[in-house]
Amino acid sequence: MTTNILIPTLFESDTEHALKAAAELRPADAKQIVLLSISPLGDSITELLFTSSAAAVDLEKRNNILDFCNREFDKKFREKIKVDHQFGLSRPLMKNLLSKFEVGMVIVPRSFTRSKQFVHQFAMRLLHQSGCPMMLLPQDGIPHHGIQRALYLGDSHTAHIPAIQQYAFHVIHKSMIPEGESVKSIVKSMEIDLIVKGKRSAASNDFTDGSDEEFGLPVLAV
Questions:
Q1: Is there a contact between 117 and 88 (Cβ–Cβ < 8 Å)?
Q2: Residue 144: which CATH number?
Q3: Is 127 exposed, middle or buried (0-12, 13-18, 19+ CB in 10 A)?
Q4: What DSSP state is assigned to residue 217?
Q5: Which of 84, 88, 102, 113 could form a disulfide with 2 if both were Cys (CB 3.0 to 4.6 A apart)?
Q6: What are the beta bridge partners of residue 36?
Q7: What is the pLDDT of residue 62?
């Protein structure tokens, strides 16, 4: 099973939330936590030949995130963090990236899901269509106490179940909700920390919603 974690990032401050989520959810055998920035291809031959990743990324923001890692995490976790940059994107390129890094989970900061750049929106579309479980974070990231209970809103007879069972949190299925009780009330009464849903159909055009706005919770799309 591929277990490495990919975090597509703009190196905004909410990348810290994604790293904390990776530390919370990381499988024991995960070898890498990949921070991946993506920029569009340049328009000229000169740009294509000579533009470096350093010129395409806000180095101050990137260094702020790396400084956060040094303060927040132990050496063992820091050694797993890899920073990578991709110029341009296509369906085959995304497939190769997921294979190259042996990605088993994608964690997406809010700033990336809300980016207006086409290359980032296209990346979100491709990630939704991939086979990787994807956690979409709200503005404040995961709860401070971590993720202990998840509410699964999908079909109990789907192939999504094994993808959920590999994690340590307890999963409550929507069928356990008493008739007439709303999802909102069960989220509050059972102190739900995570919403689990099936991925949107590839025909959907809305791939930018980072979390359940009504609940302010992260969403795991499987």
A1: no
A2: 3.40.50.620
A3: buried
A4: B
A5: 102
A6: 8, 84
A7: 95
